[in-house]
Amino acid sequence: DDTSHPLSLTYDLPSNWTTISSGLKADEGNPRSYKVPSFDLLFDSPFLIGNHYTKTISHEGHEYEFAIETPDGFEESGFESAFRSIVSAATDIIKDVPYDNYCLILLGAGGGGLEHFNSQACYTSGSYRYKDRSEWIDFLAFIAHEYFHLYNVKTIRPIELGPFDYDRETYSPLLWFSEGITCYYETQILYRAGLCTEAEKYQMLSSYMAMDEPYNGKYHQSLRMASYDIWLNFMNRNANAKDVTVNYYFRGPTIGLIMDIEIQRLSDNKRSLDDLMRLLYNRYYKQAGRGFTEEEFWDAVDEVAGASMAHVRYLVDNPVEIDYDRFLSPAGIVLDRDKWVL
Question: For the chain, which end, N or C, has fewer CB atoms within 10 Å of the first or last residue's CB respectively?
Answer without folding.
Answer: N
